[in-house]
Write a structure and sequence with these properties.
The radius of gyration is 35 Å and the shape is elongated. It is 28% helix and 17% strand. The protein has 13 helices and 21 strands. By secondary structure, it is α/β, with parallel strands linked by helices.
C-alpha cells in the first residue's frame, strides 16, 4: 500500500485506522473523496513489513500478557540501573590534572538540569544634573538586589551630593560609599597619567582624608592578619609614591573598577605588598586611592604592610614632609592626616596566602618564622619595635625587613649589613635552603615578596621558589629599573607585566641627596 500526498483527517477506533481526504498519486489535483480503513493488527503488518514489533491492542489484555509486561519492565529497569552504575564507575575515573593536584570530578555525568539564579548584586548607573561637579555626574555602583527598593530614594538625582561634602545622617554605610567614590572619581584616572602634574596642593581637604582613613580602618579591622585569597589575582610590589606608575599599570592592563567603566574587578583580585609611600612625590594620591578602593571592594582589594608603613620610617623618608607641605598638616598632632594614616598602618595584615599554595608578604621569612600559625597569632594593632626584645618583635622585623641572600649559592642566615650597618643582628638575609625548608614544612609552593628594587621588576630566587616583584620604575630617579606586576591566572600560570621608565624630569622625589637621613642603624634601600 502506498500513501501519496494528501491533506486528510485520521482517527483510530477498535484497532481500525481510518483516513479520509487527500489527493490521488497519479492525479495530484484530484481529491480523494472515499474513506480508507486499515486494521492496525493485520493490514499494517501485511502491507508495511518493517513495522514488526507492534503489539496487539486488546481491550482487556489477559493476566499472563500483563505479567509479561511487568517482567519486561523490571528487566529494563534493572538494565538501566546497571548502565547507570557503570557510568558512575567510569565517571570516577575522570581526573582533571592541575599543576599540582588531581581533582576528581564526580559530577561530570550529572543530568540534573541546572537552575539559573539571579546575581546577588545589580549594577546601577546614576546620572546627575549639570550643576554637579564633572567627576560626580556619572556613576556606576553595585547594590544588593534585596536593597534596591530601599536605596531608590537615596539615588534620585535630587539628592545633591557635592564634592567634599558628606551626608549628615546616621547611615554609615552610605557615608562610607560616598567618601570612597569621591576619592576614586578624582584619583583613578589611568588615561590621564601622561599629562599629570604634581601640584604641591592636594585637592582633598584634611578632614575628608581623615574620614576616609577611619572608614577604611573599620573595614581592615574585620579581616585577619593573614589573608586567604583565591585565583586569579594581580600582585603588585612597592610603588613608593610613584603614582604615575600605578596609573600606567591600570591604563595598560585595566584597573580595579567595574567592567562597565573599563575595569576588571569582577574578574581579578588585587594584592599590594606594601611600601605605598615615601621617596616619591605622590604618596597621598596612592594611599588615598588604595584606601578608597579597599572600602569599595573590601574582598577584592588586599593591602599588606611594608616596612615604610611605620611611623619611625615614614617620618624621615618623605611622607611626613609631603603631608606638611601639601596639606599644611601639623604632623605632630594626634588628629593630623599623618598620624591618622599611621594609626591605620598599624592594622594592616602582614601576609596573604593564595590558594593555600603561595605565601605573599613584604620582606620575607627571615630567621625565626617557622609556621604560618606564628603569623596568624599576632594581634593587631602592631607597633614595630626596632630594638628587638621578644620573639614576636623579631618575627615582625623579619616579615617587613628581611631579604634573600645575593644568589642561590649563599646559604643559611646572614647579617644584612646594607640595611643594618650597626650590625644589631635584627635584620638578616635568608638563603635558598631556608626558603625550601620553610615551603616544605608549610606545604607551600612559592613565596612572592617585594621590598627590593630589582632591575627587571622581577627576580627569581631559590630556583624559582621565591619571586621578588617591584613596581616603581627608575626608583629614586637613579636606578633606571623596570617596574613589574604578577598576574596569577586560574591555571596557576604567573604572567609578569612590565613597564619601563619615562622622563620624570619635571618633578624629583622628596628624598634627594642632602635631604633627611634615616634613623641610626637604618639604610635607605627600599
Amino acid at each position: 500500500m502506498k500513501l501519496g500526498r494528501f491533506r486528510h483527517a485520521a482517527w483510530i477506533h477498535n484497532n481500525v485506522l481510518s483516513v479520509i481526504g487527500g489527493f490521488e498519486n497519479n492525479k495530484p489535483d484530484t481529491i480523494i473523496s472515499k474513506q480508507l480503513s486499515l486494521n492496525i493488527t493485520k493490514d499494517i503488518k501485511e502491507n508495511i513489513p518493517e513495522v514488526i514489533n507492534t503489539p496487539e491492542v486488546t481491550k482487556e489484555p489477559d493476566r499472563e500478557v500483563k505479567a509479561n509486561k511487568e517482567d519486561n519492565r523490571k528487566t529494563k529497569n534493572e538494565e538501566a540501573k546497571e548502565v547507570k552504575n557503570e557510568l558512575k564507575e567510569e565517571e570516577k575515573k575522570v581526573v582533571l590534572i592541575t599543576t599540582k593536584k588531581e581533582v576528581v570530578c564526580n559530577d561530570i555525568l550529572d543530568y540534573t538540569p541546572k537552575s539559573f539564579t539571579i546575581a546577588p548584586k545589580a549594577q546601577v548607573a546614576i546620572s546627575y544634573s549639570s550643576e554637579m561637579p564633572v567627576a560626580m555626574k556619572k556613576r556606576i555602583i553595585s547594590l544588593p538586589i534585596s536593597s534596591l527598593q530601599k536605596e531608590r530614594a537615596k539615588l534620585i538625582p535630587t539628592n545633591k551630593i557635592t564634592f567634599n561634602s558628606l551626608p549628615e545622617n546616621n547611615d554609615s554605610a552610605r557615608r562610607r560609599e560616598i567618601i570612597a567614590q569621591m576619592f576614586i572619581n578624582h584619583l583613578l584616572r589611568p588615561k590621564e597619567w601622561i599629562n599629570m602634574e604634581h601640584p604641591r596642593k592636594f585637592i582633598f581637604k584634611k578632614e575628608d582624608i581623615v574620614t576616609l582613613t577611619k572608614e577604611c580602618l573599620e573595614v581592615v579591622k574585620t579581616q585577619p592578619t593573614v589573608l586567604r585569597i583565591k585565583l586569579p589575582v594581580k600582585v603588585f610590589g612597592d610603588f613608593h609614591g610613584q603614582y604615575q606608575d600605578l596609573m600606567r599599570f591600570f591604563d595598560l592592563w585595566r584597573g580595579p573598577i567595574e567592567a562597565a567603566q573599563g575595569g576588571d574587578i569582577e574578574s581579578y583580585d588585587y594584592l599590594f605588598l606594601g611600601d605605598y609611600i615615601d621617596r616619591g612625590s605622590n604618596s597621598l594620591e596612592i594611599i588615598c586611592l588604595l584606601m578608597a578602593l579597599k572600602i569599595k571592594f573590601p574582598n577584592q582589594i588586599h593591602l599588606l604592610r611594608g616596612n615604610h608603613e611605620d611611623i619611625a620610617i615614614n617620618q624621615a623618608f618623605g611622607f611626613a614632609e609631603e603631608c606638611a607641605g601639601r596639606l599644611d598638616d601639623d604632623v605632630n598632632e594626634d588628629s593630623s592626616v599623618f598620624q591618622t594614616i599611621n594609626a591605620f598602618f598599624d592594622w594592616l595584615p602582614l601576609a596573604a596566602v593564595i590558594e593555600d599554595e603561595i605565601l605573599c608578604l613584604h620582606g620575607g621569612i627571615g630567621s625565626v618564622l617557622q609556621k604560618l600559625s606564628d603569623l596568624e597569632k599576632i594581634k593587631r594593632p602592631i607597633k614595630v619595635v626596632h630594638e628587638v626584645r621578644t620573639f614576636e618583635q623579631q618575627l615582625i622585623i623579619d616579615i617587613l625587613w628581611s631579604d634573600p641572600t645575593d644568589n642561590d649559592e649563599e646559604l643559611g642566615i646572614q647579617d644584612d649589613t646594607a640595611r643594618d650597618p650597626n650590625n644589631t643582628g635584627f635584620i638578616v638575609k635568608y638563603g635558598p635552603d631556608r626558603v625550601e625548608k620553610f615551603l616544605e614544612n608549610n606545604n607551600l609552593r612559592m613565596i612572592i615578596r617585594g621590598h627590593e628594587c630589582v632591575m627587571d621588576g622581577i627576580e627569581r630566587f631559590a630556583k624559582g621558589q621565591l619571586i621578588t616583584v617591584f613596581s616603581a620604575t627608575d626608583y629614586c630617579g637613579r636606578h633606571k629599573n623596570a617596574g613589574a606586576a604578577l598576574f596569577l591566572q586560574k591555571n596557576y600560570e604567573i604572567l609578569p607585566k612590565l613597564i619601563y621608565p619615562v622622563d620624570k624630569s619635571k618633578e624629583r622625589e622628596w628624598i634627594d641627596n642632602g635631604r633627611p637621613q634615616a634613623p641610626p642603624g637604618w639604610k635607605r634601600k627600599s
